[in-house]
Specification:
alpha/beta; Isopropylmalate Dehydrogenase; Rossmann fold; 3 domains; 10-stranded mixed sheet; 13 helices; 20 strands; binds 1,4-dihydronicotinamide adenine dinucleotide
C-alpha cells in the first residue's frame, strides 16, 4: 500500500476527484489517501499562499500528490499555488502526453501522439518583476545550466524508456542567444549521449505552427517553461479537448499529478464534467509508483469507454458518440469496462513504465570570470539620446568609457535613427579600453559620479567574459 496525498480543489475538482478515486479503487490500486485542503477556501480565509503549513507537511511526508484544479483568486497578492508547489518541491519536469482518439473523439489530427516535456521551475516564471521607470516594467528570464541539463536529460531518458524515436527542442535562440542559447547548447550536448534517438531543433514560433498544423511530425518535445505552458495547451486542445489530458510534475523526491484543465466554474456541481484529465494524471501516478498493471487496466477500460461512444458533454458529438453521460455515469462505464480492451484504438501495455531515476546534477568547475564593463540603466525623461550621451561622458572613469546607449535594446547612440521610438528607460554601456579587465570598484566610481550629476540610475548589469568568451548580448544594431 502506498499513501498518497489528495487535494480535491475547487469548481469541478471534487466531482472529478471522486470519480477518479472510485475508478482506482475498483481497479485494485494499492493506495491509501490522505486529503488536504488547498485553494479558494484557504485563500479566502486570509492565507495568501492557498495552503497551510500542516498540508505542506503531509505533502512532504507522502511525496506523491494527486491534485484537482484550484482557483487562484484574482489580484490581492494571492500567489498561484500551482506554481509554488512546483517550485517548493523541485518538480522540474512537467510531462504532458497529448494524443488523439480518432475516430471516437473529433479532431482535425487523426494521427497524433506526442509528449511535451516542459521545464517547470525557471524561465520567466521565476516571477521576478520590477517597475523601473514611469514607462517601463521588466521581468527577468532566468535559465540555469542545472535546470537545462535536468529537463533535457529527463526528456531523453523518457524517450528511451517509452521507446520513442525522436526528441525535438524548441527555443528562440536566434533572439535570446544567452538564455535560450544555453538551453539549446545543453540540448545538443545531451543529445550526443543518445545516438539511438533522433534529435532536432525548431525555432519556437514555426515549431508551434507545425504542432498546430502537423502534430504527427513530433514525438517528444522539450522546451523552456513559457513555451511549454502555451504549446502544451495547444497540443492538448487539438487532440479534441483539453478535458482529456493529464500531466505529471516530476521532481527528484516528490511528484504531483493533475489534469491540465482548470476548475471549469461554468459547469461546477452539475455532474457533467469529464473526469478523464484527472484520471489520466492518476494513471501516470500509478505508473510512477510502480503499480503499472493497475494503470494499464484503467487505461484500457477508459479507451474502451471512449471507443464505445460513452461521452461526457464536452466531447459528445451526435455523429460519432453513442450516449451523452454524466460524470457519474461515465465513471460507472469505465468501471464496467475494467478488464476489457479497446478494439479499434490501440490498447496499452505498461511493462516498462515506472519512475525514472536520473543521475544527480554534477556541479561543473567554475570558469574564469573577468569583468570588462557595465551596463547602467538610467531613468531619463528628456527623450534625446545625444543629450544623454553628453551627460554620461561626464561620469566616465579612467578605465570605463561610454560605448553605446540603447533603448529597449536598440542602439540609439552613437549613430541612432531619429525614427526610433524611445521610452524613458536607457541602457548605457561602459566598456573597458582595449578589452582590459577592470575591478568592481570602477563601477562604484561611475555610480558615484552619476549620483553627483543627478543621473537616476535604476540598476546595473556587469559585463563579463567567462573563460575568455564575452557573455552578454550586443545592442541591436551594434
Ligand atoms: P478551464 O480549463 O477551467 O475551463 C475552460 C473551458 O473548458 C470551460 O468552458 C470549461 O467548462 C471547459 N472544461 C474544462 N475542464 C473540463 C472538464 N473536465 N470537463 C468538461 N469541460 C471542461 O479554464 P479557465 O476557465 O481559464 O479557468 C478557470 C479557473 O481554473 C481559473 O480560476 C484558473 O485559475 C483555474 N485553473 C487552474 C488550474 C490548475 O489548478 N491546475 C489550471 C488552469 C486554470
Amino acid at each position: 500500500m502506498k499513501t498518497i496525498t489528495i487535494a480535491k480543489g475547487d469548481g469541478i475538482g471534487p466531482e472529478i476527484m471522486d470519480a477518479t478515486l472510485k475508478i482506482m479503487e475498483a481497479a485494485g490500486a494499492q493506495i491509501i489517501t490522505e486529503e488536504i485542503e488547498v485553494g479558494e477556501k484557504v485563500y479566502l480565509s486570509g492565507n495568501t499562499s492557498g495552503i497551510s503549513s500542516k498540508s505542506w507537511d503531509t505533502i512532504r511526508k507522502n511525496k506523491i500528490i494527486l491534485k484537482a484544479p484550484i482557483t487562484t483568486p484574482q489580484g490581492g497578492g494571492y500567489k498561484s499555488l500551482n506554481v509554488s508547489t512546483r517550485k517548493f518541491l523541485g518538480l522540474y519536469a512537467n510531462v504532458r502526453p497529448c494524443m488523439s482518439y480518432h475516430p471516437f473523439v473529433q479532431t482535425k489530427h487523426p494521427i497524433m501522439d506526442m509528449v511535451i516535456v516542459r521545464e517547470n521551475e525557471e524561465d520567466l516564471y521565476a516571477g521576478i518583476e520590477h517597475q523601473q521607470t514611469d514607462e517601463v516594467v521588466q521581468c527577468l528570464k532566468l535559465i540555469s545550466r542545472p535546470g537545462c541539463e535536468k529537463i533535457v536529460r529527463y526528456a531523453f531518458e523518457f524517450a528511451k524508456q517509452q521507446n520513442r524515436q525522436k526528441v525535438t527542442c524548441f527555443t528562440k535562440d536566434n533572439i535570446m542567444k544567452q538564455t535560450d542559447g544555453l538551453f539549446r547548447q545543453v540540448f545538443n550536448e545531451i543529445a550526443a549521449e543518445y545516438p539511438d534517438i533522433e534529435n532536432e531543433h525548431w525555432i519556437v514560433d514555426i515549431g508551434a505552427a507545425k504542432v498546430a498544423d502537423s502534430p504527427n511530425h513530433f514525438d517528444v518535445i522539450v522546451m523552456p517553461n513559457l513555451y511549454g505552458d502555451i504549446i502544451s495547451d495547444v497540443a492538448a486542445q487539438i487532440t479534441g479537448s483539453v478535458g482529456l489530458a493529464g500531466s505529471a510534475n516530476i521532481g527528484e523526491e516528490c511528484a504531483m499529478f493533475e489534469a491540465i484543465h482548470g476548475t471549469a466554474p461554468d459547469i461546477a456541481g452539475k455532474n457533467i464534467a469529464n473526469p478523464s484529465g484527472l484520471l489520466q494524471g492518476a494513471i501516470m501516478m500509478l505508473n510512477h509508483i510502480g503499480q503499472s498493471k493497475v494503470a494499464e487496466k484503467i487505461q484500457n477500460a477508459w479507451l474502451k469507454t471512449i471507443e464505445d461512444g460513452i461521452h461526457t458533454v464536452d466531447i459528445y458529438k451526435e455523429a460519432i458518440s453513442k450516449k451523452c453521460v454524466s460524470t457519474e455515469e461515465f465513471t460507472e462505464a469505465v468501471i464496467g469496462n475494467l478488464g476489457a480492451k479497446p478494439e479499434t484504438l490501440k490498447s496499452v501495455t505498461y511493462d516498462n513504465s515506472k519512475a525514472l531515476t536520473l543521475p544527480k546534477y554534477e556541479r561543473k568547475k567554475s570558469k574564469k570570470k573577468e569583468l570588462l564593463g557595465v551596463d547602467i540603466f538610467v531613468h531619463w525623461k528628456k527623450l534625446n539620446p545625444d543629450e544623454l550621451a553628453i551627460e554620461l561622458k561626464k561620469i566616465e572613469s579612467n578605465e570605463l568609457k561610454l560605448s553605446m546607449i540603447t533603448n529597449r535594446g536598440i542602439k540609439v547612440w552613437p549613430d541612432g535613427f531619429k525614427e526610433t521610438f524611445c521610452t524613458d528607460h536607457w541602457r548605457c554601456r561602459f566598456m573597458s579600453i582595449d578589452g582590459k579587465i577592470v575591478q568592481n570598484s570602477t563601477i562604484l566610481e561611475i555610480l558615484s559620479n552619476a549620483l553627483d550629476k543627478n543621473i537616476d540610475t535604476i540598476k546595473t548589469e556587469n559585463l563579463y567574459a567567462f573563460d575568455g568568451i564575452t557573455s552578454f548580448s550586443l545592442g541591436q544594431g551594434q
